[in-house]
């Protein structure tokens, strides 16, 4: 009888029906607790069960991380972090209240010196798994870096434009004064409009 149970257990193991294999071996050990082959087979089956569980857990964790990252990137497009709660599917009121701390984050656009450290952002105190916390840290750090780059580029462009405009105006004034160019209001339409406005204001009765 025990040999038949062992053969059935081996067959079930090969078919990856590990629950059935465990049941057959258990019944064999109940009949003969010291059966060496049955004890070894039980260890083998339990090891396979643990491996299967580990692979399943790792696979689900990988899938969950991928979905989380995809959701964060989609929901936080254009740094619209106010929608990040959807990426976590927060169900309890505490989590929802914590996520509300993100609202307006992208609108405030705090200067780098005024920003709170990443470690002080609300998601660090919401009981999230460490890998999700790390992912959020990376996300916000990347968003901050991109925003700083855009703002710095805009600032440099504005400064360059102002500098060029001042240089052009100064050169035009000098050329007019030295007779090398037409009057400034003929060269710059904006200057002509400004002069006309000044003339109109002078003509108004006091």
UniProtKB/TrEMBL annotation:
SUPFAM superfamilies: TPR-like (SSF48452)
Region (Disordered): 105-125, 141-206
Composition bias type Basic and acidic residues, residue spans: 105-114, 143-206
Top-level taxon of the source organism: Eukaryota
Cleavable signal peptide: none
Protein name, per record: Uncharacterized protein
Originating species: Alexandrium catenella (Red tide dinoflagellate)
Lineage of producing organism: Eukaryota, Sar, Alveolata, Dinophyceae, Gonyaulacales
